[in-house]
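TA notes, week 10

Several of you asked for a full example with nothing omitted. So below is the full record: structure tokens for the whole chain, then the designed sequence directly under it. When grading your own attempts, check the secondary structure regions first.
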């Protein structure tokens, strides 16, 4: 048997269990609500509307007969002279139009009843797999999670020393493993290339705001003129993208004094003007706080000295801290930056 287990987090099992329970609750409520709407609409369509239009047809038929009777009565009253029945005949025409409309509505209801029964059956069939997941698969998964947590708790009790710290063994081990995982995930100054793992998905980098945003905040400083000259001589130096193209910047990064800039393949299609540039936080890069999409012109209006950095080729990654360029990596994560003397 192995002397140790590679366990990175116990808390995450509890979080997964809570998330599954929340999902079951919300999905069940949603299905119940929609099913109630389906039943209510079906009852209205199959019971209420047919009865309504049946009565309406009968009512309009009676109105037509009454209009005809009025014409006959007026003709008999005026006999042998011709009767003036213009108004009565107009009333008869209106009654016939209403009767025709009522018949059309009644026929449409009959057609929709058949369509509704077919579609509602299809809906119930489509919900069956989700119901099975909610009432069979997820409870089984939660049961397995509970067994895993019970086994881990037993493991920590066995692994904990019998000294004064034994009572806190589980908490200490959990905290230690969480720190180990965070340290493994977090990049350090020796591995700036690891920052590439935390770049947002393409769709998050091109979604432009629908409202006017406040001016861009920037706390990472501006590269010196000497740094800009050295940067222009590196192998990754290229041409400046059009200023009407866009870049994405982490909201957190706008408030920090150490950020990284990386140029990716631009997102193509759908009217995208993406330049490929993304600016993110070096500290806790997983937490970006959402992204802001703005034009390169907006960035250069705020920080003109970023122009040489934004001219670097696709694949370039640079780290900027308080106006000092700390790292410049080529697409193969080879360090190119040499701090000017």
């Amino acid at each position: 048997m192995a002397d140790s287990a590679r366990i990175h987090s116990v808390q995450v099992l509890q979080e997964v269990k809570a998330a599954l329970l929340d999902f079951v609750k919300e999905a069940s409520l949603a299905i119940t609500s929609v099913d109630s709407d389906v039943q209510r609409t079906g009852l209205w369509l199959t019971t209420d509307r047919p009865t309504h239009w049946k009565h309406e047809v009968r009512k309009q038929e009676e109105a037509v007969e009454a209009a005809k009777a009025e014409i006959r009565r007026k003709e008999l009253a005026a006999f042998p002279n011709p009767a003036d029945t213009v108004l009565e005949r107009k009333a008869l025409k209106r009654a016939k139009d209403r009767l025709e409309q009522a018949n059309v509505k009644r026929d449409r209801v009959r057609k929709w009843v058949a369509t509704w029964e077919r579609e509602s059956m299809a809906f119930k069939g489509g919900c069956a797999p989700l119901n099975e997941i909610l009432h069979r698969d997820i409870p089984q998964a939660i049961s397995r999670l509970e067994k895993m947590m019970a086994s881990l708790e037993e493991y920590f009790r066995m692994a904990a020393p019998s000294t004064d710290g034994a009572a806190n063994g589980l908490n200490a081990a959990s905290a230690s493993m969480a720190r180990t995982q965070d340290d493994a995930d977090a990049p350090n100054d020796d591995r700036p290339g690891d920052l590439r793992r935390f770049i947002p998905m393409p769709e998050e980098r091109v979604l432009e705001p629908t409202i006017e945003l406040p001016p861009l905040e920037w706390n990472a400083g501006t590269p010196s003129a000497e740094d800009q000259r050295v940067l222009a001589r590196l192998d990754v130096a290229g041409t400046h993208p059009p200023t009407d193209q866009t870049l994405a910047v982490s909201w957190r990064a706008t408030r920090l004094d150490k950020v990284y800039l990386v140029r990716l393949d631009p997102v193509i299609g759908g009217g995208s003007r993406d330049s490929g540039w993304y600016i993110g936080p070096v500290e806790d890069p997983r937490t970006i706080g959402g992204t802001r999409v703005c034009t390169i012109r907006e960035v250069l209006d705020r920080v003109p000295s970023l122009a040489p950095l934004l001219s670097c080729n696709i694949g370039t990654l640079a780290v900027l801290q308080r106006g000092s360029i700390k790292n410049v990596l080529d697409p193969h994560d080879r360090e190119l930056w040499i701090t000017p003397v």
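The helical segments are 11-78, 86-159, 169-185, 202-206, 225-232, 296-302, 307-310. Use that as a sanity check on your answer.
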